[in-house]
Amino acid sequence: MSSEESKGSVPFESWGRYPAYNATVLPMHWQGDFPGMLDGVHGGVLAVGMGRSYGDVCLLKEGTLLQTTSMNRLLAFDPNTGLLTAEAGVTLAQILDFAVPRGFFLPVSPGTKYVTLGGAIANDIHGKNHEMAGSFGNHVPQFELVRSNGTRMLCSPRENPDYYAATIGGMGLTGVITWAQLILKPIVSRKIDYEGIQFHGIDEFLELKEKYKHVEYTVSWLDCVSTGKNFARGIFMLGDHSKAPDELKVSGKPKLVFPIEAPGFLLNRATITAFNTVFFHKQIKPHVKTLQDYEPFFYPLDAVLKWNRMYGKRGLLQFQYALPWESAKEGTIAILREIAKSGQASFLAVLKTFGDVPSLGMMSFPMPGIMFALDFPIKPNVSFPLMQRLGDMTRDYGGRLYSAKDACMTSQQFKAFYPQWERFARYKDPAISSSYWERVMGQEGDR
Amino acid sequence: MSTASPRGNEPVLAVRRTPENNLGNVINLHPRRILVLGATSGIAEACIRIWAERGENLYLVARNADRLAAVAADARTRGANYVDFAVADLDQTAIHPDLLAHAINSLAGLDVAYLALGVLGEQPKAERTFEEAGKILHTNFVAPVSLLTWLANYCAQRHSGTLAVLSSVAGDRGRKSNYVYGSSKAGLSCATALIAKA
């Protein structure tokens, strides 16, 4: 039922629009379509959803992409427990449209609601409540996984627990998820009790984080451009679901679409510095308290569809790391200095902490410590060496990068970030692959 | 879409149950009884979702059991007041009277019958062999006329009921590239229009 469905051998873009590879896109409508729909198809396949991961984790060069977005039925819902059973191609936006009027909300919300349930599991996404809720997979009690040999497996912590763990955060490589269960949580209002607090430096950020550790959602915006006394200034944003009962209506549809490719010169140091300064001082008071709808709180960028066009045809790279507490502060300061020195940063830098709820996925990204994410407009000869340096620094501080956002990590870096990769590879489906996997396995161009 | 015997939309009197009373779905105080023939077609499924969200009563018929089960589960979850279904190959016209009687019994009456069965078929094959052409004509024309004949008599006896039939622009203006499909839909449009006048 997606209007964005595409057919034939066409460029399929991820959100970063880099890299761009041609692939044959086949819509998957029914749970029983796979693997029969592949009769006569040669080469590798990969199930994909909305294409909202940034790099090449949802791409397969010259392969076949099974787009699941029209396999989006809601199969069961128990309002006593909040347990929703749905096909894997349903988006979190569609789940919210169903759940919010019934008084329920997603257990974990990423920065966009335009991702599929299957994609959320495959990337074991996280949200602003990681300290309390862990990542997405922690709220998925079971799902069905179909292998390319036709085996259909019910996966849960009890049944096929190894495939359950390999598939959560498994980047779609273990098979095709046809349906999954998700435990929604009750709400009585669309509103969020919001607070925004200015801070200067990582120490102040960590103090705020400690002070507000009882608050469910916390995230910070960070200025990565300024140096000197404004180094690592930012706004600490926190919120809880409002407890005052209020109308639970369905969200409106976004009206704005970023119209055209922005010319490359639109994003330069002057405009970005200006943006960051305006953003920092938009919150004129050092401390703001207000009641805010959940849409701008969780999904501020969803208000403008296709905002990635802002970065022009060349696209964007995202650098997103997690560092363990032992090195989190020191590493974050060192990496921020390197980024500020490069002069390449854009706006949209996000800083938050990961809690110690263990992820259920074998290859999940979160680890207790600090998480940081920043977009870079792509500049050939500059961006890629910088990403390489930042990746090496992340490795040296004992952290890891996030596959769902990555287009640059080397095979060596990947194997250092995810030393369990060999165990994971045993659960990979032989017919399924991605350009990401071929890159980090050092198999680029092998096919 | 052609309609035989159009009937004004009754206002839906609906309230949403709150989470406290354990359903959360819309309660439709006057649910319509809707029979969907060919319920796994894309257009039919989109309609079923709208009707389900309004809390209507649905009886769904399609050939593939797994697909039909998924569509029916979706309708129940979204809030249909009542969902029943039958797995049946509607090409077999001999089963139509029993199937339709059973559906109407299950719905305790009928307000709307929605006919969405149909195949595009393989035109090049249909040009080579009558077997393929005959299959297309049977599924798109003969079988719907069999269903419509029974349903029209049922509605006429009760002086109520809406028959909604999916035809195609290919039936309004035939094209060489799919003339078999087009002529099956042209026949269906003609039959539906004249059944409505009979």
Strand content of chain A: 25-35%
CATH arch. level architecture of chain B: 3-Layer(aba) Sandwich
Proportion of beta-strand residues of chain B: 15-25%
Residue stretches of chain B low in confidence (pLDDT < 50, at least 5 long) are 1-23
Mean pLDDT of chain A: 90
Q: Which percent range fits the helix content of chain B?
A: 40-55%
Briefly note the CATH topology name of chain B.
Answer: Rossmann fold
Structural class of chain B: alpha/beta
Find the count of extended strands of chain A (DSSP E, 2+ residues): 21
| Widest β-sheet, arrangement of strands of chain B | 1-8-7-4-5-6
Rg over CA atoms of chain B: 18 Å
Distance between the termini of chain A: 33 Å
Report how far the terminal alpha carbons of chain B are from each other.
18 Å
Query: What sort of overall outline of chain A do the alpha carbons produce when their principal axes are compared?
Result: globular
Q: What would you report as the Rg of chain A, rounded to the nearest angstrom? A: 21 Å
> What's the total count of β strands of chain B?
8
Can you characterise this structure?
- The complex is a heterodimer of chains A (447) and B (198).
- With 447 residues, chain A is of the alpha+beta class.
- Chain A is built from 12 helices and 21 strands.
- Chain A has helices at 92-99, 117-122, 130-133, 161-167, 202-211, 269-282, 294-298, 325-342, 383-396, 411-417, 421-425, 435-440; strands spanning 8-12, 21-27, 45-48, 64-67, 74-78, 83-87, 104-105, 143-146, 152-155, 176-183, 185-186, 191-200, 217-222, 233-241, 256-257, 287-293, 304-305, 316-324, 349-354, 369-377, 400-401.
- In chain A, the strands form 5 sheets. In chain A, strands 16-12-14-13-19-20-18-21 form an 8-stranded antiparallel beta sheet.
- The longest helix of chain A has 18 residues, at 325-342.
- Chain A is globular and about 60 Å long.
- Chain B has a single domain, classed as 3-Layer(aba) Sandwich (Rossmann fold), CATH 3.40.50.720.
- Chain B contains 7 helices and 8 strands; from the N terminus they run ββββαβαβαβααβαα.
- In chain B, the strands form 2 sheets. In chain B, strands 1-8-7-4-5-6 form a 6-stranded mixed beta sheet, with helices on both faces.
- Chain B is globular and about 50 Å long.
- The A-B interface holds A 1, 30-32, 73-77, 79-80, 87, 98, 101-104, 186 and B 16, 18-19, 22-25, 42, 45-46, 66-67, 70-71, 73-74, 76-78.
